Amino acid sequence: MKITGIRTFLMQVDAPNLKGWASDGSFGTRAGSKGLTGTRNWLFVKVYTDAGITGIGECSGWPRVIETAVNDLANVLVGEDPTHIEHLWQKMMTAIMGHGMTGTVGGGAMTGIDMALWDIKGKALNTPVWNLLGGKLRNQIRIYAHANTPEVAKGLVAQGITALKCGGVSSPVAKVAAIRDAIGPDIDLMIDMHGPPWMTPGDAVSLARALEPYHLTWIEDPIAPENLAGYQRLRNSTNIPLAAGERMATIWGLRELIEQELVDVAQPDTGRAGGITQMKKIAAMAEAHHIMMAPHSGSLGPVAEYAALHLMAAIPNALMLERIENDWPGRARTIIPHPIQHNGFLTVPDAPGLGCDIDEAFVAEYPSECNVSNPGIAGSGSYADGTDAEHVYVQTRLKRARYFTA
Ligand SMILES: [Mg+2]
Fold it and tell me: 117 and 182 share a domain?
């Protein structure tokens, strides 16, 4: 079998239901302000073969830029045997090395192609990808949803969701306290503190200590991802479990986080960490340090979610998969078939390969317009409270007596 071609499918995607994505309304929709539409694109990749088998993959990590990278990589892949996945991954990594260290853009390009190669291999052998990864440990994958208010949280719990994550931009301690009070002790709760503006390490210590009484499953991205010394300081100052890794790619990108045991939960993004090939290795590195895997999936499309389900089915240290309830309605129309969710779990697919495809005609109805985040707007809630709307990368939290208390 030989690769005959690679095609990309790029689409503009609406923000999820605002109650699920952000409580402050700062992300907008396609119908809204142009400046707010650019936060979310999905990029799908199809790899074609002379055997008539086609593989599907998905790339995150700046999809509009990655589309060009994927088309460049096609030049070194056409004519190759798609079943030699590790060889082709190494060939792609070598091909892009001249551009510098591989971050999530190069990682995203390799991811979509790698995912499609696993899909092809599964179809060729008439077996699901989880079987190629060592077989199934579980038939369903626990998911967690997003909630920023007690009302949304209670609604999700009523639907069977057993784990929730809130965003920590405004009043994080008060928000966690209110949601914990609403959902009780039996639902798992997390908070994502990602910037910008990122917290300083000292502020993250203050916050982590203030959050300790609420028994969070993790505090996510408490400081900027490149500050590993800051993670060590945080580690030494609090017992709250830490999670990070969604902005890193490949085994080398997550190596220090895992080897220095700076986190309890590793969160590589299934769309940009380097593909199923890398995710399986990252999971094994984490397993050796008793670190759990909760792949980042919040902004991803539905093909990467399928890949995550196969991975999570086959690794022992799978914790939970991120999933946005009430996502853009077009999500269900983009993917065939839509994954089955029941009582806070997604069913592991059993069809050969990844077991899914995209509706190409539907994707074509939503051409990409823009793909960068609009910085927060003063008054929208993005910078209130505790930060100023200066559009800086790291910022000390202000009004601390209020910010760090319930
Ligand atoms: Mg996050």
Answer: no
One-letter amino acid for residue 162 of the chain: T
Does residue 164 fall inside a structural domain? Answer: yes
pLDDT tens string 277-320: 999 999 999 999 999 999 999 889 999 999 999 999 999 999 99
CA of 276 to the centre of ligand 1 (A): 20
Cα 5 to averaged position of ligand 1 atoms, centre (Å): 34
**352 C-alpha to ligand 1 centroid (Å):** 31
Same domain, 282 and 149: yes
User: What is the C-alpha to C-alpha distance for residues 71 and 205, in angstroms, rounded to an integer?
Assistant: 44
For residue 386, tell me if it sits in a domain.
no
pLDDT of residue 280: 98
Query: Would you please indicate which residues are annotated as catalytic (active-site) residues?
Result: 194, 296
Closest listed residue to residue 273, CA positions, set 258, 290, 251: 251
Q: Tokens standing for 328? A: 């853009």
pTM above threshold 0.70: yes
Cα–Cα dist 191/150, whole Å:
14
The CA 87 to ligand 1 mean position distance, Å, reads 31
Nearest to 219 by CA among 205, 233, 232: 205
